[in-house]
Amino acid sequence: MTQPYIRFDKVTKAYGDFIVVEDLYLDIAKGEFVSLLGPSGSGKTTILMMLAGFEPPTRGAVIVDEKRIDQLPPHRRNMGVVFQSYALFPHMTVADNVAFPLEMRGVPKANRKQLVDRALDMVQLGTMADRKPSQLSGGQQQRVALARALVFEPAVVLMDEPLGALDKQLREQMQLDIRDLHKRLGLTIIFVTHDQSEALTMSDRIAVFNKGRIEQIGTPNEIYDHPTTRFVADFIGETNLLDGAIETSDANGLIVALPGNKRIRVAAGSGEATGAAVTVSLRPEKIRLNSDAGSENSLPVTILDSVYHGDHLRMVLDAQGTRLIAKADRRFGDLQPGSKAIASFDAADCWLVRS
Fold first, then answer.
1. Most exposed: 41, 156, 172, 186, by fewest CB within 10 Å?
2. Is 335 a residue whose pLDDT tops 90?
3. How many contiguous H segments (helices) and E segments (strands) does the chain have?
């Protein structure tokens, strides 16, 4: 990364003896879209509130553009904030809602209309300036909240689960709209979410949080395909976690012994000792049914359950006591519970994770 635009330098936030965020060190580049992803209570929103100025850090420094800002009030931080609740004034028009931050910052009335019109055009709501919030759909109200956060041209836009109240189809459309806006305007966006697919869709990088600490940070591909811990592998999407022990290693990777006298090859691994207990992450979509029988990573399985998901079947498999989830092609719909099959997968798709 080049010189970071935003830096959390060993930031801790505690309420009495309860530590919400602990020794956070995080760098964010200018123009980057970073999602803070994790379960409820993992510290995501608290981090956003410390950056916005609504919560002071207990220890550590918050730095933006090489200037420490953790002692500055929110209105001097030049940051737009979008909350899950749109917080629009119901008695004001769309234009007046968007103009409100300009009025609070003392922008002359003569200059406000041009700025408001430009912000509404950014979110494709220029024709709805005279409507009231009650006359808009949920997605349109969310766009008004976004326009209000952008109207004063902030250096950073902070979003705290802004799409959580929308239905699935509208939420997915808004994800694409915000991503497009980020690219067109070169915004620096910090986005809080507990939705894994949302973070994977929108982000340049994802920081996965657990109990106030970063478990892993990386690109969506790195986080999904190469999780470093059991928590990340299990939290990001769906995965199979196979506990075993290293039996041998060679130039092509590791042989891992699983319960029930089963063995699989794992391509990645370094420094693990023979006999060491390990956990292997294997994504369901990487499992193939009834192909490559006899290959190194092929296991006889019994179908326990099969659920139709439109574009695939979610199958629960029993590999002689080891439970596997597979995403199978719909052509395997004739494999009913009790059917026998062979599950196979590549060594490159097996990934060692820490507990």
1. 186
2. no
3. 8, 20
